[in-house]
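Shall we go through a protein fold together, starting from nothing but its sequence? Please make up or recall a protein chain and show it to me in full. Go ahead whenever you are ready, and we will take it from there.
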Amino acid sequence: MNRLRSIIAVNRNFLLCYGFFFLVGLIFLLMKGKMATFLFLNPFHRSPLDYFFIGFTYLGDGIFAGAVVILLMVLRRWSQAWQLLSAFLLSALLAQILKNVFSMPRPWEVFDHREYVYFIDGITRRGYSSFPSGHSTTVFSLATMLAIFEKNKRTNVFYVLTAVAVGYSRIYLGQHFLTDVLMGSFLGVTTALLVHWFFIKKFPSPQ
């Protein structure tokens, strides 16, 4: 447990910023509810923003996480590569289990399309696999690991902001509710911390 506390202390900038985002989102949800927060966070859409978020959301895709793992392997950062891969796979597995357990409807299934008109043909997904957001889980797992690996801890805010932006893209594109994004972020961050703690406990060698 001392090692885990040390990891948390060293990465406090990242975790404090993430905690602020999570707490604000949770309070907002408790005050307004799931559907109201979705509508509030989607007041307008414009084609340039649509194109931006359609591309940006892929930072939370498993293919992007795999590309980062391969890059770390090319750079011979073996421990970092295995940690990131382990965190990605474990968090993705947990997210898929929860999706099947809860089987929550996506926004497409919830809203009358005359009430919310910003669903994007060919992009917005349908179905009952909303909770939690898989992309949010992946990007927060990736961001947490990269923040842990980053020597200059002052730059860790960048990882939080990037992950939050990807999480918002899931809401903007009509794929998920804020509830899904928050749960995905929690899964990603927690899994990454525990995977890193396990690796330094079992394999204390240099990166």
The two ends are 21 Å apart (CA to CA). The mean pLDDT is 94. Residues 78-102 form the longest helix (25 residues).
